[in-house]
Amino acid sequence: MATIEQIVEAVLQDDNLLTRTLVQEFLRNHPILTDIPKPEMHDAISLTVAAALLELFSLRTQQAAPDWTQQVGPAEEPRYLLRSVTTMRRLRDLCRDAAPEPLRRRRLYAPPDYLVFV
Q1: Per-residue pLDDT reduced to its tens digit, 40-54
Q2: Can you tell me the distance from the alpha carbon of 68 to that of 37, in angstroms, rounded to the nearest whole number?
Q3: Taking the model in full, what pTM does it have?
C-alpha cells in the first residue's frame, strides 16, 4: 500500500512515473484525507512536500486536508518539482507563475496540471 512518505521520496527523486502510480494507489486506499497522520519525515523539505501534496489532493477531491498540514511552513528555498525546468525556461516560468496554490504557498513549483488526474 502506497504511503505519503513513498510519494514524497518519488517526487524528490524526480521519478514522475512512480509518483503518478503511487498517488493513484494512495488515493484509492485513502479516500478520506483528513485521517492521514503526520508522517515521520527526516528533513524539513520532505515534510513540506508531504503537506503541500496532501493539501493539493484535498483541494482536488473537495475535502478538508489533515489538520497538521496547516502547521507546516514553506520550503526555505524555492524548489521545482520537475527536473526539466532547468533546461526549459518557459516551463520554469509556467511553474513559477501558475503552480497549484497549495504548492506555491510553500515555495514549491510545478505546472498547473501537476498530478491533475488526482
Answers
A1: 988 999 999 999 999
A2: 8
A3: 0.93
